[in-house]
């Protein structure tokens, strides 16, 4: 028997999904507009734990575009996922949350059909969520430096340097990840302070070099083909990219990379890599990006 938490959320999702335009307008007026978009997203994710249905009203029921390819479009797709939740439901622990214009992006520890590390991106219009992207991967043991997928710095700083930090990461992605140019690597990445949270890579540029050597010697691929979004708040920057990963020629994957910067250099990195399923497996037609 499903918990009361899940049943409450399912019921509220389907009430919203079936609202006509007049009812939807009424719901929009009921949204706590004094909350920031970031606060709304944190409340929505936390509702997995509390069962509070109120934050679901932060989603526009008439215009919710879903990019998780395992979930149907709109609120009805979200409701179907909730109906299939395991006993006890899902859990979400938001570790980091950021806001960039109409976008909110989060780094979350999930219990979602098993322990998961996830990044979520939400787009807002008129105070309501209208679009969602995410990347999820299984939680793994600590990396060779003892770092996990979640620990590390959380404090947002240097808000006045947001655009400068975005440019540094954009340059790093363009030069290093997309084109393999290492000329400016030690300018863009602090070689003595670089902290790595990828479960297979150790701290420092030596750790990165060892990982790349392992890939080369074992016929593996880590290739970035296109960057779709670069979102930033202060000293944190998230990139959403696609490419190839794994045994050559590599699987088609989505890369979500979160970088922390100090004094114009990258000093910390978290990531989630998720395979992109073939189109015949998609439950919506909005694409991963």
From TrEMBL:
Origin: domain of life: Bacteria
Domain SnoaL-like: 169-269
GO biological process, one term: polyketide metabolic process
Pfam families in alphabetical order: SnoaL_2
Secretion signal, residue range per the UniProt entry: none
Alphabetized InterPro entries for the sequence: Cyclase_SnoaL-like, NTF2-like_dom_sf, SnoaL-like
Protein name in the entry: SnoaL-like domain-containing protein
Organism encoding this protein: Flammeovirga agarivorans
Origin organism lineage: Bacteria, Pseudomonadati, Bacteroidota, Cytophagia, Cytophagales
